[in-house]
């Protein structure tokens, strides 16, 4: 009985995990994000971010 | 009297005999059942009261290289309602609430749901369909609706769970991820089914009542072993870009179908693969794995192979000149055309590739190999172009490269092959060759799966399989890489050129279904492709885009139709990797800055018991200064502080708000 109950719980938790994960994954996709921010007027950059590394001389 | 007595005795004997025979028959039967058939009956009885119960193993999941789920088994729910079991006062009170929640979640109007459920109740329907294929979260939500939240008996809520194979990313890369069911063994799921499946377990159960079974032992006779997880080489982000970019081009050109594959040059890891086919209503979906199965005439994409072969044979160099004339040239009774009206005139072999001159290639190859065609074909074959890649995914198309003894051979075969006709390759086979050029001549096999895992433990790791360490000399690689770079810089693909990032590749615009030439002329059909790699120096990825039968009025050239997909992917990868600019310390040190800095230090290091004067200070100095005194700062305007709301010298109250006006 206990085993059956736990098994059912595992199944439910697994289902919850997978379902939530697939929702979050879809939201994360660039094409989804792109669509959602288009209304605000944002679009992906055409140039990469630049990291400015300052090499300072030791005093 | 005596006669009557004898009659009775006779009858008695008769009855006795009859009983005796009956008894013997019963005895024989008992012995038979007990001993002769005993084994069978005992077995039967066991079967009826004890059974082996299969415990299904969870099938493994398929992951992308960065750990996103591509395919997994999950629970799905079908929701039904016993509309009759609900008590009437509960029903009347909550039916509107339930109907409005259902309409919000599943569409249709509130009144639609209300009448539907009421109707079912009148008809005493105990199994009214509500919704199917709900995920867990939706299931939990629907369970909390009015009436339904009373449960099964009072609320009539019926949920039927089933396990299905789910693809969290939807139809993306569906043909490559594949499936393993009644429709066959497709893609990765089909190829690696033995790993995914796991092993079923079983346990003994005994019948305790009709339809009820209980386990005999505490432990399972055999524990189920869950399937292993498969980590593919797919990168979800690149896949997403590739998929949507291909879809956009297919839709714009109303093309029949297309595919795109992105491969990592060094490892052969397939980072993205998308195959989209058009349905009768103009929508696109993953119909077949075109990249893997569809062997076709590659058209101009094959000029690279021809050039490499000719360079390897040392019969020409990239600077060898060839006269392409006025764009129309007769060879063995057949005309060969170039796409530019008026022709390219006399050009070098390198330029012939840049502008994709059919005449240039036909002449270069025919004039140098017509007496020894087997040599040219031999080099192509040595570069593995005539053999399958041997992919784990089923259904790879076989390449065809006819040699002099082949049924497809003729005098025209050699020049045709030089510009990509009269032979067949699949997109993936073509890409594998380009990838080898990008990888300095080392040909690696496209790889779809990188690792097999069980929970977090690695079971098997797939190394890159090398088909050939060197398909051609380094000098040749260097030469053709320069030419491919120029294709984008100043050749057929110059529309794609970008100052910011470099790409190299070859366009292809091949005729297809031209068996009946007259008919073809009326309804021109092309296959537009772009194959290449990026960046042009030290390539990281190779990529091939093939689009079949774009709408000719909208365009059909490889650079217009397929090129943009390639560029999108190259650009995406370029922009998502940051550029590091190192600069030496260039902090300007001026006396004024030093003075200001020092004077600020002098003020800020003083201890204040009353509100200080911040007038004339810059806001960025004033804020930390005041906040260090436990004040809250609000401000308006720009520039330096003009006014402060608490005057100088007042006592500091912790947490008090000081308003600054700038100007």
UniProtKB/TrEMBL annotation, chain A:
It comes from the Bacteria. It holds the Pfam family FtsL_2. InterPro entries: FtsL-like. This is Uncharacterized protein.
TrEMBL record, chain B:
Pfam families: PASTA, PBP_dimer, Transpeptidase. The keyword Endoplasmic reticulum does not apply. Signal peptide: none annotated. GO terms for biological process: cell division; cell wall organization. It is found in: Membrane. Keywords: Carboxypeptidase, Cell cycle, Cell division, Hydrolase, Membrane, Protease, Transmembrane, Transmembrane helix. SMART domains: PASTA. Gene3D superfamilies: 3.30.10.20, 3.30.450.330, DD-peptidase/beta-lactamase superfamily, Penicillin-binding protein 2a (Domain 2). GO terms for cellular component: plasma membrane. GO terms for molecular function: carboxypeptidase activity; penicillin binding. The chain crosses the membrane at residues 12-35. InterPro entries: Beta-lactam/transpept (IPR050515), Beta-lactam/transpept-like (IPR012338), PASTA_dom (IPR005543), PBP_dimer (IPR005311), PBP_dimer_sf (IPR036138), PCN-bd_Tpept (IPR001460). Residues 605-663 form the PASTA domain. PANTHER family: PEPTIDOGLYCAN D,D-TRANSPEPTIDASE (PTHR30627), PEPTIDOGLYCAN D,D-TRANSPEPTIDASE FTSI (PTHR30627:SF1). This is Cell division protein FtsI (Penicillin-binding protein 3). The lineage of its organism: Bacteria, Pseudomonadati, Bacteroidota, Flavobacteriia, Flavobacteriales.
